[in-house]
Write a structure and sequence with these properties.
It contains three helices and five strands, in the order E-E-E-H-H-E-E-H. It is α/β, with parallel strands linked by helices. A three-stranded mixed sheet has the order 1-2-4. The protein has a two-stranded parallel ribbon with strand order 3-5.
Length: 86
């Protein structure tokens, strides 16, 4: 999941979360829908997020569901985000 936070005097503190869920290519429509629902449920039940919302922090969640391909998705993610395996 990628996240970013911004703070301004005019708009206050904002947090945006971008969870990424990768399913196998044979995932059913029900499984895809369940993945999206899991993102919504996680947002609504997050104790830290709910506490921040009470403090007027704006939290935006935009989930993405994709499908695994022949490529090594994890290695590609690590490389794209400048992460290290160690």
């Amino acid at each position: 999941m990628d996240s970013e936070g911004t703070n301004s005097k005019k708009e206050g503190f904002k947090i945006a979360h971008y969870p990424q869920i990768v399913l196998s290519t044979d995932a059913t429509e029900d499984q895809v829908q369940s993945a999206y629902e899991a993102v919504v449920t996680a947002d609504h039940t997050c104790e830290v997020g709910n506490l921040l919302k009470k403090g007027d922090v704006q939290i935006h969640v935009e989930g993405n569901v994709s499908f695994i391909s022949e490529q090594d998705v994890i290695s590609e993610y690590v490389e794209d985000h400048g992460l290290d395996w160690n």
